[in-house]
Amino acid sequence: MAESSPRAGKIAATPWRRRLDRWLPKVSLVPSGLASLIFVYGFIAWTIWLSLTNSTLLPTNNFAGLRQYKVLFQLDIWWVSVANLAIFGILYVAICLAIGLFLAIMLDQKIRAEGWLRTIYLYPLALSLVVTGVVWKWLLNPSLGLQHFVQSLGWTGFSFDWLINPHMAIYTVVIAAVWQASGFVTALFLAGLRGIDSSIIKAAQIDGASLPRVYLSIIIPSLRPVFFSAIILLVSLAIKSFDLVIALTNGGPGYSTWLPAIFMYDFGFNRGQIGLGAAAATLMMAAVALAMLPMLIAELKERRDGRSH
Amino acid sequence: MAGPTEDGIQRGGPIARLLIYGVLVLAALYFLMPLYVMLITSFKTLPQISHGNLFSLPAPFSTGAWSSAWSNACTGSDCTGLHRYFWNSVAFTVPAVAFSTLFGAINGYVLTKWRFRGSELVFGLLLGGTFVPFQMFLLPMARVLGLIGLDNSLAGLTLVHTVYGIAFTTLFCRNYYVTIPDELVKAARIDGAGFIATFRHVILPISTPILMVCVIWQFTQIWNDFLFGVVFTSGSEHPITVALNNLVNTSSTGVKRYNVDMAGAIITALPTLVVYIVAGRYFMRGLTAGAVKG
Fold first, then answer.
1. What cellular component terms from Gene Ontology apply here (chain B) (predicted)?
2. Which CATH number is correct for B83-293, 3.40.50.970, 1.10.3720.10, 2.60.40.1930, 3.30.465.10?
3. Which residues of A fall within a CB distance of 8 Å from B103?
4. What's the confidence (pLDDT) of residue A9?
5. Enclosing domain of residue A30
6. Peptide bond preceding A6: is omega within 30 degrees of 0, i.e. cis?
């Protein structure tokens, strides 16, 4: 505001329309900027603050230092949630990448019905994760679902009861989540493959390289940026996973499929442990930030390099 | 027999081609299988489900599960089906999509064509919000909604979805408007058009593709949301995703009615599925735009 005062006379001399045009753009950004300051940054600060208080059923402002985090780290159920996130996250990302890359390479072989296939591969992403959870809960139902179907074909000893097995239930979450997202990863890789200059491939083939060899040593390495963004995206999706688990297993059997997002919801809203819920949310944000870090560094590097040219 | 195709790249022979098609069709069946099972199960009767097999067609077709899911299935203690919750979801999704798209378009316009000192900072602020897990906002938002009297209301959900959608729509629109030559806007200004007139007569007419991306992205996100719905509403104000989960976990007479569950799941999925089928092109564009930065 100070910078405009020397020019105040000049502004007053311009017609009101010009003056309006000077202010309208700023004014129209105000609601969004303000909303972001309050509802994003203000709330982040508020949640971090709550995690440092002894809030239980109601939020209080009694500073308690890191007590909530200490309590959190002594809770078995928190470590079950973290371990589940590690299992789920690693398998989810790895399998999605493998299926996505494989299908994208297959689709990139001048396939006739490519558009149709792509549409089919991608539709699960349009569905609510609750719907995905409900469907897979039905398919994985031991007494009437896939297990029952295979047994009815004659393999009476066939067993696929992961949904009700506390040691295996977390893998059913992987199965459903991979089904939902692998078509999307396929589309990302396909877009990456289409961006590769085909003359490089031709040149390599003229030099005598076989097609699998070309893929392994030229094409896949050049997809590095796609791997990068797909991994970041999948990791942050995994950390935020909530709906799917609620619909598929509701955290069970017992606590065997709890994830940090479920811990946060249950402690913050059902058990009246607001401080613990806030601490869990804060750690989730820290985890997402950690996953984002490589991208941010790469972005900054790129910008610095871009400027030096 | 291996031979170069029209692009000059050496590919496999007919057997390899057959194998590739086989793999791709199998993959398609894998993706379609749950949808198929969902559909046929929703048209079966309960005896057909317990005596038949998972993949057999319903014989005869029965629409009882559908009418039950829509009008009298129990979602918790309330047994009026999903229809009320379906309209709840419509009631907050439509305005939230409209508001967040409108704000996104205006923000994108300002951030590219009317830059001022500090406008990049606002963009940075908005962008930063796209990375934060929503769990960070739940406890304060529950408190604020209570304070302003919007707790457990569709208006509250509209507000929440608008606020947290703006960052994405702003990102989409900004990245689109950046590609529009500034000369277009300058010419309009020389002709005497101001901030609003330029937006209405120059920018809006060429914005259809990006507005489609915003609307489809927001519609899918908001309709499919479960977290905000389950935290900020209860009982009769639930969105359909929460009601579906309640329906599946309620067995009124002790008998699980899987056919009703499946009909409910399709009812929940139908709006976004239709949007995807009709406008899949824009859907994909929003996804990749969101994937690169969000």
1. plasma membrane
2. 1.10.3720.10
3. 31-32
4. 42
5. 2-51
6. no
Residue B8 has pLDDT above 80, yes or no: no
How many domains are there within chain A?
2
d(CA A235, CA A232): 5
| Residue A29 burial (CB count, 10 A) | 23
> Is residue B291 over pLDDT 60?
no
Q: Contact A163/A169 with Cβ under 8 angstroms? A: yes
Per-residue pLDDT, A213: 87
Which tokens is B287 given? 């996804």
User: Does position A51 have pLDDT exceeding 70, yes or no?
Assistant: yes
**Nearest C-alpha in B relative to A284:** B133
Interface of B with A in 211-270 (CB under 8 A): 220, 223-224, 226-227, 230-231, 241-242, 244-245, 248-249, 258, 261-262, 264-265, 268-269
- C-alpha to C-alpha distance for A129 and A131, rounded to whole angstroms: 5
d(CA A96, CA A120): 16
Q: How confident is the model at residue A5 (pLDDT cuts 50, 70, 90)?
A: very low
Q: Which of B34, B129, B223 sits opposite A135 (nearest CB)?
A: B34
pTM comes to: 0.90
Render B118-164 in DSSP notation, one character per residue. THHHHHHHHHHTTTS-THHHHHHHHHHHHHTT-TTSHHHHHHHHHHH
What are the tens digits of pLDDT across the range A126-166? 999 999 999 999 999 988 889 989 888 888 888 898 998 99
- Place B251 in a pLDDT band, splitting at 50, 70 and 90: low
**Predicted confidence (pLDDT) per residue in B17-45, tens digit:** 999 999 999 999 999 999 999 999 999 99
Q: Do residues A124 and A246 share a domain?
A: yes
Give this complex's ipTM.
Answer: 0.91
Q: Which chain B residues are closer than 8 Å to A36 by Cβ?
A: 122, 125-126, 129, 166-167
Average pLDDT, chain B: 90
Residues of A in contact with B280 (CB under 8 A): 119, 122
* Residue recorded with tokens 């963009």: B123
